[in-house]
Design brief:
The complex is a heterodimer of chains A (about 475) and B (about 220). Chain A has about 475 residues and is an alpha/beta fold. Chain A folds into two domains: about 220 residues, 3-Layer(aba) Sandwich (Rossmann fold); about 220 residues, FAD/NAD(P)-binding domain, CATH 3.50.50. Chain A contains 17 helices and 19 strands. Chain A has an eight-stranded mixed sheet, sandwiched between helices. In chain A, helix 2 packs across helix 14, helix 7 packs parallel to helix 10 and helix 11 crosses helix 12. The relative contact order of chain A is 0.17. By secondary structure, chain B is an alpha+beta fold. Chain B has seven helices and five strands, in the order H-H-H-H-E-E-H-E-H-H-E-E. Chain B is globular, with a radius of gyration of 18 Å. Classes of the chains: A alpha/beta (about 475), B alpha+beta (about 220). The interface between A and B is large, with 48 and 40 residues. Chain B: This is Adrenodoxin-like protein 1. Chain B: Keywords: 2Fe-2S, Iron, Iron-sulfur, Metal-binding. Chain B: It comes from Forsythia ovata. Chain B: One of its GO terms (molecular function) is metal ion binding. Chain B: InterPro entries: 2Fe-2S_ferredoxin-like_sf, 2Fe-2S_ferredoxin-type, Adrenodoxin-like, Adrenodoxin_Fe-S_BS, Beta-grasp_dom_sf.
Chain lengths: ~475, ~220
Amino acid sequence: MAIFGKLRWISRSFTSLPANPLRICVVGSGPAGFYTAEKILKAHKGVEVDIVDRLPTPFGLVRSGVAPDHPETKIVINQFSRVSQNDRCSFIGNVSVGSSVSLPELRQMYNALLAYGAESDRALGIPGEELGGVYAAREFVWWYNGHPDCRNLAPDLTSTDTAVILGQGNVALDAARILLRPTVELARTDITSHALDALEESSIRKVYLVGRRGPVQAACTAKELREVLGIKDVSIHVKQADLVTTPADEVEMKNNRIRRRVYELISKAASSGPSPPLPGQRELHFVFFRKPDRFLESDDRSGHVAGVHLEETTLEGDDLGKRIAVGTGIFDDISCGLVLKSIGYKSVAIDSLPFDHYKGIVPNVGGRVLSDSTGDLPQYETGLYVCGWLKRGPTGIIATNLYCAEETVASISEDIGKGVLTSNSSKPGREGLLQLLDSRNIRVVQFDDWEKIDAEEKELGNLKNKPREKLATWEELLQVASE
Amino acid sequence: MAPPQYAAPPPKRKTEYLEKDALQLYVAVACTCDFGVGRIMFISKFSRPGAHAIKSMVKAPYFTPRTSYLPVVHNHYLRTLRHEPFCTGAEKNADEGSEEKEKISVTFVDKDGEEKHIKVPVGTSMLEAAHENDIELEGACEGSLACSTCHVIVMDVNHYNRLEDPTDEENDMLDLAFGLTETSRLGCQIIAKPEIDGIRLALPAATRNFAVDGYKPKPH
């Protein structure tokens, strides 16, 4: 770690910058954006950082992804707010890079750091994926968390008693928990009213969490699993046969503490239940070694899903990192009226940005964006960096971005030290951007405008004994911001 | 979603992190026990990090990442009280009055090996103490056991053993900590008490490798 010491020395010698400070625009105000901004501001005393987001509200998935019943996970917002309040930092919301302003235009005004995450989804690519009632888990999560893009998702929770969730990661568990938790408990959280109302009317009593592989490979972590296993009035169903482990499984568990604790929790749940179902009790089923083959269309309701056709799988491959689920040709069905695909997010490409469509990330080395050019030596795009899911792919927790940001900021600091990024350039920064947006009639939302939204949400929440009632439409958000 | 686990690099300054008396005690216990493998397994848990520490005395000190589950006794009757985040220094001064609040010595060692020695009032968490002394310990959830960013490595196994066992909740968060070791704890859950006077806490290094091809180094 001597390199960090060296870089700190280099950056210190650049602390007193001339009147034309280095300007960096961070695109995306989630954890990646904010941790990067914080570290840049700390390491370079003359740099100005603007954080741009296409939503009027900051904080990315901390606001729109973390479940309503996990308020402690959102406390990091306090730290991010302090970053925004730094004199050399500005939040500029309601600005979409790619439509309000193009990337080339932005790069004429700033050095840019893209941290806009992954707003789309991996597709299964199987028949029936377009049927009504089949959603990405991301859309469902955005819906109950009040993201304005999914305000009108209106999932039908009243025509069926069964939901199938494909995937067994923490997002899948969140969705299952929100569908199964007693609504009196949810009513005290910051879940949006439109979602709470729908859940109160919901007829869903059974949720299946379906994974291609076994309990040892389930992608969730212990805390979330413990929580979903402990939901009030929910019986847990796991087939004993699915718990049989192979020697390869044992090795995997021995090397990985998380896998072992997850497996232990699942097998404990399997051995202790379920007791004979009580009236009104809901069910959570863990289904392992099944991959979806196609979605079945309803006979009564054309264009709507009625079930999932699943193929049994077996794990092949000895290399622990590469064991994959392979179909066995044995099929069965689960009838359901709601399907949530929780198989991973995917980043969205924008014009003039090198993009790897297969991996769904921006090609980079240590956060420096690689040019599209083919040649022997890697060529970097000057003044263009990435951080977060756009850089690494959509995995990890909030804290993963701490280390990701450190790496990208180290690259930026090195480039400042080498003179690759200079403050002498005539980049107009914030003034230029605001002028351009004004000429396009785009109403920006600054941090104190967000604070008006924040205050309004808390006040509305107060009336309902909730921490906040989120404003979930573009119109409401922009209206309150401009008051 | 599981983060890869890495070894922290050796600190710049050679730090001796096994107290001499703990080493002697380990040797004494080992000698009095039958060295058959079965008996070894019943030696109290500190002997495992003890063996590791002895190895490290011989070569350059480094921290091995935890790769197997360290069995922890969950005694719910001794469950650590969840510490209220951020009792301010001002409140503490107000409380002192005629009674001097007892303080213990704590040393933080950062990822470059630089040490900072501070005094911490009994009852304060290591996270609060770090923030009050401008030590760069992250605390995203401000002490509510909802993250792993205040992860610290207790450098002396004696001190580690004098801490209350981690709860399930703390272990759940430790699962996700980067550079996890056998003497890792969350800083917000280590509460200053006289028995851990002189405790040395290392901040885990960020030896990240975010290779674009998704290469995950195997834990070792």
